[in-house]
Specification:
The structure holds two protein chains of two kinds. Chain A is of the alpha+beta class. In chain A, 33% of the residues lie in helices and 25% in strands. In chain A, strand 15 and strand 16 (383-388) form a beta hairpin. By secondary structure, chain B is of the alpha+beta class. The longest helix of chain B is centred in the middle third of the chain and has 19 residues, at 67-85. The termini of chain B are far apart. The chains are: A alpha+beta, B alpha+beta. The A-B interface holds A 47, 73-77, 80, 96, 100, 136-138, 192, 195-196, 205-207, 245, 248-249, 251-252, 255-256, 259-260, 271-273, 275, 406-412 and B 15-19, 64-65, 69, 72-73, 76, 80, 83-84, 113-117, 119-120, 122-126, 140, 142-143.
């Protein structure tokens, strides 16, 4: 276990829930609760993620508990897979609590194409996806923004994409926040951030980002699957990316600013990357407005990729290849939400909002089942469709996990299995792979990640979300 | 800042689960910052990439609140230039450097597409400290 957490400080509250009480360290204001079974707990003990969650529990205005999801792992300041809510009157906002890739998230598109019917054109379709959606550190020459357009993306998010013909009206109704947070102010986004992002709309980026063609291979909840239009044997497309360099620069700019002004607010923290400012301060308001703008950029990015995917599928499959958006949800974001009658600023870093059927922000098509949540597995392994529960509001501020979670460094993954072998393994499973670099393919090998099945099992047992469907990859375009 | 002459500039890159940690040592703060720049270039380019005598020069100025923040700011400026200008700095001549600011002439090479390995220098476990014979530093890079 990491040095700062003694075993006796951890109370087992249930088969998948542990707690580090607020008394474990004098500077903690609230307890830390960790959702994990014994095996995941053993993995979590191996890094500093619980120590980092305890550091988060020292932030001014933090309320309830700090939560660690079963895919939690060590991050910068906040752990990845962490949830913390701050009182808006007395609390802070922390750029590190959102992370560098602001509104990194996932959207799922469904089709009426059956895999067997689509198979003859599947490889050309995956190739077309890779050709039309730039990956790696690439730019997007196909989507040029005129002067002023970037500010409109930052301000209007997916509404601007609708104007540009890159979204369908029905897309916005099934995108978190309609794909546009109202608090966005492009004026709070630095020229440097805009420069990094101006030619990156419609690009995947690098790291663990991807576009994946999948087949629905198991339905767990037929009613919820029907509400989403998911049918066994049919193809889906999962898009995982975020706000690219623009979001990174927003985070960099405001971590620096808050690091400088924190002492003036009497805030002293165990980790500089937790840099924060009161929500009501000039700096706090400026960051929140810039973060909302970067979030709008990320939703627009996934929308632009959706438009490219629709064109690719239409080219290969005609009208039968139409891709319908099921939902788009962020997993790196801070949102103002009402919990227990109070307005809180909920930071989710590597955690997904998972509202239940009765929550007013659950979109109308999903009021009977709950808000869709997508949990990408590692490349080559299954992804899961879940729905949020009403109980999750009281268990985790309405949050659940975001993915399998890394278990191995990129270098260790490359040493464990060369990229060429990873490519062969995937192809042997019938997965079409498009990744320019075998080395980067190796970094994202399935063995580098925790077991997504176990992560999903824990959130289901804990009541944070319910399983709806399992998706098996048949084509991967890796960032 | 110290004008250390003893400690040779060096760096090590340590891999963590989802990040890289750069450990640095040098005879002076300026040398430490230059070594950080060279280490970043090795990550952004192929390992074999070296200073290019035909590369272009650029003036870079950075300010920060303390030496550790200066190290992070410096690397973030180089990351920004790599991403937006497609230009990776490999050689550094410091015109001025103190514990809160630096002015440097850097020679760099154009790259069609940097590997994109490094996205940000973080403040997490960031450290720069004077030691006998020079300075030591640690910075964690988001990759």
């Amino acid at each position: 276990m990491n040095d700062s957490v003694a075993a006796h400080d951890v109370t087992v509250l249930g088969p998948v829930l542990r707690e580090v009480p607020a008394t474990a360290r004098p500077d903690m204001r609230v307890p830390v609760r960790i959702y994990a079974d014994d095996e995941l707990w053993r993995q979590i003990e191996g890094d500093r993620s619980i120590e980092q969650a305890m550091n988060v529990a020292t932030l001014p205005g933090v309320t309830g508990c700090v939560y660690a999801m079963p895919d939690v792992h060590e991050g910068y300041g906040f752990p990845v897979g962490g949830v913390a809510a701050m009182e808006t009157a007395t609390g802070v906002v922390s750029p590190g609590g959102v992370g560098y890739d602001i509104n990194c998230g996932v959207r799922l598109l469904a089709s009426d194409l059956e895999l067997e019917r689509a198979r003859p054109r599947l490889e050309p379709a995956v190739h077309e996806l890779s050709r039309s959606i730039p990956s790696g550190p690439g730019r997007n020459p196909a989507l040029s923004l005129e002067e002023g357009d970037l500010d409109r993306v930052l301000h209007q998010g997916c509404r601007f994409m609708l104007e540009r013909g890159l979204a369908l009206p029905e897309d916005l109704a099934v995108t978190e926040a309609g794909g546009a947070l109202p608090g966005a102010d492009p004026g709070m986004v630095s020229p440097k951030a805009k420069r990094r992002g101006h030619d990156q709309l419609g690009t995947i980026g690098s790291g663990n980002h991807f576009v994946e063609v999948q087949v629905v291979d198991r339905i767990f909840d037929p009613a919820a699957a029907t509400a989403m239009g998911l049918r066994e044997g049919h193809l889906t497309v999962l898009i995982h990316t975020g706000s690219r360099g623009l979001g990174h620069q927003v985070c960099t700019d405001y971590v620096r600013l808050m690091d400088q002004v924190m002492p003036g607010y009497g805030i002293h923290l165990p980790d500089r990357q937790l840099a924060c400012a009161p929500l009501g301060s000039d700096e706090g308001r400026a960051y929140f407005a810039a973060m909302c703008a970067a979030a709008n950029f990320a939703w627009s990015n996934r929308q632009a990729i959706t438009a490219a995917a629709r064109r690719a599928f239409a080219r290969e499959f005609g009208e039968a290849g139409h891709l319908r958006l099921i939902y788009d949800v962020a997993h790196n974001i801070a949102k103002l939400e009402r919990h227990g009658g109070a307005q809180l600023c909920v930071h989710r870093k590597g955690a997904t909002r998972a509202f239940g059927p009765t929550h007013p922000e659950t979109p109308a098509p999903y009021r009977a089942c709950g808000q869709p949540v997508f949990i990408p597995g590692s490349m080559g392994t299954a992804s899961y469709v879940l729905v949020g529960t009403d109980a999750a509001l009281g268990l985790s501020f309405g949050s659940t996990c975001h993915g399998a979670g890394r278990a191995m460094s990129r270098g260790a993954a490359k040493r464990a299995r060369p990229g060429a072998e990873v490519r062969r393994d995937l192809e042997r499973q019938g997965i079409i792979v498009r990744c320019p670099s075998s080395s980067e393919l190796a970094e994202e090998a399935p063995a580098a990640y925790k077991d997504v099945e176990r992560v999903v099992d824990v959130v289901a047992r804990a009541g944070l979300a319910r399983r709806v469907a399992r998706l098996r990859p048949v084509g991967v375009v890796k960032g | 800042m110290r004008d250390g002459a003893g400690r040779p500039a060096s760096h090590e890159v340590e891999e963590h689960t989802s990040e890289l940690q750069l450990r640095l040592g040098a005879g002076s703060l300026a040398d430490l910052l230059a070594e950080a720049g060279r280490a970043l270039a090795r990550l952004q380019l192929a390992e074999s990439a070296a200073a290019d005598r035909n590369g272009t020069w650029r003036e870079i100025e950075v300010t920060a609140s303390d030496p550790a923040a200066l190290l992070a700011e410096w690397l973030n400026e180089l990351i920004y230039l790599a991403e937006t200008e497609r230009w990776v700095a490999t050689e550094f001549r410091f015109a001025a450097a103190d514990e809160r600011s630096l002015r440097v002439r850097a020679r760099g090479v154009p790259v069609a597409s940097p590997r994109g390995l490094v996205k940000a220098a973080t403040l997490h476990r960031l450290r720069v400290a004077p030691v006998p014979g020079g300075y030591e530093g640690e910075v964690i890079l988001d990759v």
